[in-house]
Write a structure and sequence with these properties.
Blueprint: H1 2-9, E1 18-21, E2 28-31, H2 33-42, H3 51-59, E3 67-70, E4 77-80, E5 90-91, H4 93-96, H5 122-132, E6 135-136, E7 151-157, E8 160-169, E9 172-178, E10 187-190, E11 199-202, E12 205-208, E13 211-214, E14 217-220, E15 223-226, E16 243-244, E17 247-248, H6 251-259, H7 266-284, E18 301-304, E19 307-310, E20 313-316, E21 319-322, E22 325-328, E23 331-334, E24 336-343, E25 348-349, E26 352-355, E27 362-366, E28 369-372, E29 375-378, E30 381-384, E31 387-390, E32 399-402, E33 405-406, H8 409-426, H9 446-450, H10 458-463, E34 482-483, E35 503-505, E36 510-512, H11 516-525, H12 534-544
Parallel strand pairs: 5-6, 7-8, 8-9, 9-10, 10-11, 11-13, 12-14, 13-15, 18-20, 19-21, 20-22, 21-23, 22-24, 24-25, 24-26, 25-27, 27-29, 28-30, 29-31, 31-32, 34-35
Antiparallel strand pairs: 1-2, 3-4, 16-17, 32-33, 35-36
Length: 555
């Protein structure tokens, strides 16, 4: 009834929309008529934050860094997305998913319940619960095999430093891979094998340093190409073979030119990458270190202010959406319907203001963090296979729970009405978790590394996001290190002993080692070894080829 009264009193313009001022940035933003109808349908008030600040809030709960931490359960050293001395107890995935502990034991009574406590605002109760329940060290599940150094992942095997990915084998140093094998580096690569540093690639084989390619094989430095094979440093090709810088060659001439290039030399590869960047800018119209100017949508209709939309319809101001319908202000998911302000996941409907990577089958999840296979849950954190839950943390296979306390169906519905009325009256209902509850320090979150206000701590500090000085992450090696400049230029001059040495990247200011698998891969294809600290390679791909989530809304 309270929310119905809210919409009854709402003053809209002649088109049925409303201009609003963001209560944080003070930027003006427009709530479209179709947005108003969506909020009315799912029974939430109009947002008080502009799209960029809504995105910042969710990305502040995400990170692509991992650390060594100590298990609160076993005392052993484990890999964790949470830095040491942060505010949570952490359990390794095997223990967290076991029956050796019960998150319901941390349950908290609602305000005023039974008359034994004075009324307390919901957020105070939730914060206490969130701090008490041990956290899953990594957002991964038991389906991963020998892939401890990954996060936001599922069904990985023998992968290392791979993030936001699923169904991959023998992949390294990459972000957002799906169904890939034997790939190194890259970003947003699908259904591909033996690819190197490819970005936005689909169904490719033995492609190296290629961007925005599909159904390509045995090629180097392609951009916006489809159905091509044995091509080199070309743009915009369709179903071509033996092309060199967009020039058609015979098979013999192509192979002769390719044999005259030494891809094992780091110096030569560096020059070729610079040449490719110049050609890409000239031929494709890309902005250096910025977003491409072309439209990358495929097989989609009614797409507005969005890019990289595939097999979808009715999508507004969203990016990297596949097989979805009626989507707005969202990014990076597959198979969603009637969903706003969400990121990540492999299937859902009527979801709002949630960030859920590597999960699926959600229905009416609102204000959720890492929710999977759940229905009608709100303000829940790291819950799976749950229904009708509110303000819960770490639950599995539960129904009719509030703050990790079990209720009957009748009790739950009565209490839910009371708590939502109070939250609406206090202005606490209708948005993602508050900034101060962020589960990782803001300065190591994706909001800081790649969000709308990338690299700026001042505004985030003013808005209440927590920060902490964080020591080196799990990839940083200790001990005496050789400067990376001491590495031989050519892969032919590098022996297996390199994997026993520590090298120093002066640009990143970090020490690191090369993996034996990495050396094998580069030897197999005769490619020069990279000279950058591993996580810098991943972030470099994100910087050069932006995912689009943070593009200014007026572009």
């Amino acid at each position: 009834q309270k929310i119905s009264e809210y919409f009854k009193d709402l003053q809209l313009d002649k088109n049925g929309g409303q201009w609003r001022e963001c209560r944080l940035s003070e930027n003006k933003f427009y709530v479209r008529p179709e947005d108003v109808e969506f909020y009315r349908k799912i029974q939430v008030p109009l947002p008080s934050l502009c799209p960029n600040e809504r995105l910042r809030r969710k990305l502040a709960y995400c990170t692509d860094r991992i650390y060594f931490n100590q298990s609160a359960a076993t005392g052993e050293q484990i890999v964790s997305m949470y830095p040491p001395r942060w505010k949570y107890q952490v359990y390794e995935p095997d223990y967290w998913f076991s029956d050796k502990w019960d998150p319901m034991e941390y349950g908290i009574l609602l305000q005023g319940e039974g008359g034994e406590t004075p009324p307390v605002r919901f957020w105070e109760k939730f914060e206490k619960l969130q701090l008490a329940v041990p956290r899953l060290a990594l957002y991964s599940d038991a389906s991963n095999e020998n892939s401890d150094f990954t996060n936001n992942s599922m069904r990985l095997k023998d992968c290392y430093l791979v993030f936001n990915s699923a169904d991959c084998v023998d992949c390294y140093y990459a972000y957002a891979l799906v169904n890939c094998r034997d790939c190194i580096g890259g970003l947003l690569t699908l259904n591909s094998e033996w690819c190197y540093e490819c970005r936005e690639a689909d169904n490719c084989y033995e492609c190296f340093w290629c961007d925005e390619v599909k159904n390509c094989r045995e090629s180097y430095w392609l951009t916006d190409c489809r159905g091509c094979s044995n091509c080199f440093m070309s743009q915009g090709l369709r179903h071509k073979q033996y092309c060199w810088k967009n020039e058609q060659l015979s098979k013999g001439e192509y192979e002769k030119r390719l044999n005259n290039i030494d891809l094992g030399s780091w110096e030569e590869v560096h020059k070729l990458r610079m040449t490719n960047d110049e050609l890409r800018i000239k031929c494709v119209g890309a902005i250096p270190c910025g977003r491409p100017t072309r439209n990358h949508n495929e097989n989609s209709i009614n797409i507005e202010r969005s890019d990289y939309i595939k097999n979808s319809k009715n999508v507004y101001q969203s990016f990297y959406i596949m097989d979805s319908e009626n989507i707005a202000y969202s990014e990076g998911f597959i198979g969603y319907k009637d969903t706003y302000d969400c990121g990540g996941g492999l299937g859902g409907e009527r979801c709002y203001e949630s960030i859920t990577t590597s999960s699926d089958s959600n229905y009416e999840v609102k204000f959720g963090l890492n929710i999977s296979n759940s229905q009608n849950v709100e303000y829940c954190d790291t819950c799976s296979n749950c229904r009708d839950c509110f303000g819960c943390v770490g639950l599995r296979n539960k129904q009719y729970c509030i703050l990790n306390k079990q209720y009957s169906k009748e009790e739950y519905e009565l209490l839910m009405d009371k708590i939502k009325v109070e939250m609406l009256e206090n202005g606490d209902y209708g948005e993602f978790f508050p900034p101060e509850f962020s589960i990782v320090p803001y300065n190591v979150s994706e909001a800081f590394t790649s969000g709308p206000d990338k690299g700026n701590l001042e505004n985030a500090r003013c808005y209440g996001y927590p920060m902490m000085e964080v020591a080196d992450d799990v990839t940083v090696e200790m001990g005496e290190a050789l400067d990376i400049g001491a590495l031989p230029d050519n892969i032919k001059d590098i022996d297996e002993l390199i994997v026993e040495k520590v090298y120093y990247d002066p640009v990143a200011g970090k020490k690191f080692r090369y993996l034996p698998q990495e050396l094998f891969w580069h030897k197999k294809f005769g490619l020069a070894l990279p000279r950058k600290y591993p996580l810098a390679r991943i972030r470099g791909a994100q910087d050069y080829f932006p995912l689009g989530w943070w593009w200014p809304v007026d572009l």
